[in-house]
Write a structure and sequence with these properties.
Chain A is mostly helical and 247 residues long. Chain A contains 9 helices and 2 strands. The two termini of chain B are 35 Å apart. The chains are: A mainly alpha (247), B alpha/beta (306).
Chain lengths: 247, 306
């Protein structure tokens, strides 16, 4: 019900554009440092671990392929999702939950504003737009982190590293001739995760009761539920995408 | 710290006294603060008849029922309201009193159509609202202003933005017209617009928040104002100011008000009629004079020594 209403309100007036922009800033721009750091260090550790394994086969030149495949298809979307669930999901649940217990949601209602239109729709749209954006940045930071380790620790030239990254992307196949399947995997997932995080957070926020303790409970439930859903849904999306977009 | 906070802190001392030495940090008041406090004391010492709401003669002239509850039943896990009926005439102030948990605030939610009764009808300005769709209910709510117990100002918005909110939502007024209206409403509730418009709700004292809440409620020139415990948690001087404001709204703007309160002293000052809820139904509905003269044992108990 909440999802249908929230999405439905995106196509009717009044539309709270300034709230959408504010939420895009809050969900997207302000999550950049945490996502960049997560991506960069995950890429570095992936390169480091795989270099040890690949060295035994004399295949360290494939570090780029391994990092790119892991980051774009799985780790990028999932890690960005988990980080955003922790940072943004908890924030949304706490904010809307506090508004609920201090009667601000009732105040919106009495002032003739639908709280779902005013609070939920901008957050859901912002998350749907910003999660894929953050994931692309996360992927790039990760591959760059892998590049740093590959060049500095393993001694693989940067040009070779990036060539193997591209080989991996191209090897995954293309849809509509030009769009790599890896990109589809990497963008469909964060889009869905963005919806999960924002809707779970708004839902628990709106259902908050029991004063400040209730706000804490809603926040915890949001992070736990959104994180678990991300991991579970990730599996099913992967299965679906592999069935429809085989390499 | 805001002026009102200083006021409430000082109320524990004798009026007009200065803080004694060793009593902690002395409270510094500006000339402006002193003027406001003197005005409030003046207001309190005025003959009560000056604030008396119009009663019998007024009702004889005004017969337009602007709010009406007819045989309303509502239950959640237990019955809340059973066969509750009463009406407010245009321009009246009806106080809904009763013990905690008797469904006083529920009546406000029914009037706002935040709740729908299991049975019965609710009329706002002759329009039956229980069967309205959600979108239509939003339109009915625009006729009413609600003042919440904790004021329920939007934390992230300044005082100006809070009061301007209903105007930006539901009118096509220009920003200049909105500013004029916001300043007018803030002045009406005895706040200095220049001083408060850029403040956030967290910077305000309880009394100031309530006053901003009233200004926001009346910003759209609502003809019906609903108050949920408007004086709870306030010191006596601020309570008197808020009570005075509710009376001022009725006298100067002819606003119809429904006030849910425990504060019998304020209720007697502001009410045209008082409804007392007890055991899910209305135990008494009449003027303050009729209430104080009643020999109903429950009312005698409820009023205590008042």
């Amino acid at each position: 019900m909440l999802s249908a209403k929230a999405i439905g309100f995106a196509f009717s007036r009044p539309f709270y554009r300034s709230d959408l922009i504010q939420q895009m800033d809050s969900i997207g721009v302000q999550s950049l440092p945490i996502v960049l750091l997560t991506g960069f260090f995950t890429g570095m550790v992936l390169a480091l671990q795989s270099s040890v394994q690949l060295k035994t086969f004399g295949a360290t030149m494939y570090i780029g392929r391994l990092v790119a495949a892991s980051m774009i298809r799985e780790l990028g979307p999932v890690l960005a999702g988990l980080m955003v669930a922790g940072r943004v999901g908890s924030g949304i649940a706490a904010q809307i939950g506090s508004m609920r217990v201090t009667e601000q949601i009732d105040a919106l209602n009495t002032l003739g504003t639908d709280p779902i239109r005013k609070l939920v729709t901008p957050r859901v749209l912002a998350a749907l737009i910003m999660m894929p954006t953050l994931t692309v940045i996360n992927d790039f930071a990760g591959i760059l982190g892998g590049n740093v380790i590959a060049a500095a620790y393993v001694g693989i030239p940067t040009s070779l590293y990036w060539r193997t990254v591209w080989e991996q992307i191209a090897g995954g196949g293309f849809i509509f001739k030009y769009i790599p399947n890896d990109f589809v995997h990497g963008l469909v997932k964060p889009f869905v995760f963005g919806g999960i995080i924002s809707l779970v957070a708004c839902n628990f926020g709106l259902k908050t009761s029991g004063g400040t303790e209730g706000v804490g409970v809603s926040t915890t439930r949001t992070v736990v539920t959104a994180s678990i859903l991300i991991l579970v849904v990730d599996y099913f999306i992967t299965q679906l995408l592999l069935a429809f977009l085989p390499a | 710290m805001t002026d009102d906070r200083r006021d409430s802190g000082d109320d524990r001392r004798k009026p007009g006294s200065t803080p004694a030495e060793g009593e902690g940090v002395p409270i510094r008041r500006t000339a402006d603060d002193e003027r406001v406090r003197a005005a409030i004391r003046n207001e309190l010492s005025l003959d009560r008849s000056q604030d008396m709401p119009p009663t019998a003669e007024y009702r004889a002239a005004a017969t337009n029922k602007i709010i009406e509850l007819k045989n309303v039943y509502l239950a959640f896990d237990r019955p809340i309201l059973e066969n509750v009926s009463f009406a407010a005439l245009s321009g009246e102030t009806i106080v809904v009193a009763g013990e905690s948990g008797t469904g006083k605030s529920t009546i406000l939610k029914l009037l706002l159509r935040l709740l729908v009764p299991d049975r019965g009808e609710v009329f706002i300005d002759k329009e039956e609202i229980t069967s309205l769709k959600f979108a239509d209910a939003l339109k009915v709510r625009q006729k009413m202003g609600m003042v919440f117990q904790g004021a329920a100002l939007f934390d992230s918005l300044t005082v100006y933005e809070n009061v301007a909110y209903p105007l930006r939502e539901h009118t096509t007024l220009s920003e200049d017209e909105i500013e004029t209206r916001v300043r007018e409403k803030l002045s009406f509730v005895d706040l200095n617009p220049d001083r408060v418009i850029d403040m956030l709700p967290s910077d305000l004292s309880g009394g100031m928040r309530k006053r901003v809440g009233i200004a926001r409620g009346m910003a759209n020139n609502a003809q019906i104002m609903l108050y949920d415990e408007p004086t709870s948690g306030l010191d006596p001087l601020t309570t008197a100011t808020i009570t005075h404001l509710i009376i001022k709204l009725q006298r100067e703007l002819g606003v119809t008000s429904i006030v849910v309160t425990h504060d019998i002293r304020s209720a007697f000052r502001m009410a045209s009629r008082i409804a007392v809820l007890h055991n899910c139904h209305i135990e008494f509905f009449g003027t303050p004079e009729e209430m104080s003269g009643s020999d109903n044992p429950y009312l005698r108990d409820f009023l205590g020594g008042y």
